[in-house]
Amino acid sequence: xxxKFINGLVFGxxxxxxxxxxxxxxxxxxxxxxxxNNLVSSKEVVDSPPSIKAQKKxxxxxxxxxxxxxxNRNVLASGSGEIIGKAMLNGNPVSGLKLRLALNGSIxxxxxxxxxxxxxxxxxxxxxxKIDGFELDSNSANALLAGKIDHPQNxxxxxxxxxxxxxxxxxxxxxxxxxxxxxxxKNKYSVSDDVTLKxxxxxxxxxxxxxxxxxxxxxxxxxxKALFEWSSRPRVSDTSFNLKEHGVELKVGNFYELxxxxxxxxxxxxxxxxxxxxxxxxxxxx
Length: 286
Fold this sequence. Notes:
By secondary structure, the chain is α+β, with helices and mostly antiparallel strands. The chain has 2 domains: about 65-175, Immunoglobulin-like; about 190-285, Immunoglobulin-like. About 15% of the residues lie in helices and about 35% in strands. It is built from 2 helices and 22 strands. It has helices at about 1-40, 140-145, and strands at about 65, 75, 80-90, 90-95, 100-105, 105-110, 110-115, 120-125, 125-130, 130-135, 150, 160-165, 170-175, 190, 195-200, 205-215, 225, 235, 240, 255-265, 270, 280-285. Strand 5 and strand 6 (about 105-110) form a beta hairpin. The longest helix has about 40 residues, at about 1-40. The termini are far apart.
């Protein structure tokens, strides 16, 4: 009798669990269907696409790493030690920029926000450190640095240094600048055209280094061919560059992108053009 009672209890419990599962599946399907129907019913068919609006965002690198950093990066606990650095935009302090440092090849620091003087302070335990990169908060960077790039000669890493009670660590100095603006008015040229590419004069620049990239796929991220050796790139003092005068032979069906570096009177690089690796400036036709 007791055995029959137990069997009945088990059977009843199993039936109840199965019934609950069926009810859950039913209501899940019911509410998902209602949600999907509401989405479909709220959509409208339009006759023409919306106009393309230029996004106002930071154009530089949001993150640079060298080491064993993975997507779910470990974060170092805060401590009594500090690493101090600075962020500057065209020589002026950047206030409110949120950032963190990549440390010792495998760990991220706590987030820090620059103060009114552009200074950031990262808290960490006393130890030996090496900076292997950084990460900028994208929302913060887009809000404060829209249309800007990182300085071409920014340092992204350091050697080893000690953080102790007596000594603070020296962090990265983030320099952000305006990019050089290209004035390329045509996106197609004939192979027989005498092509001169132009750009806006950059404040403080006395010379410009030129590079031209050639590609067969206009939207390929890699595979660009540099037409000039890096050490022998043409340097001009004007804000224009004639391709034929510098021996450039354009090929029908290929796509080209102009890259420019600006140099000051001491020949130090002070800015460059914003480069879209999966884009191009002009196409060559018959």
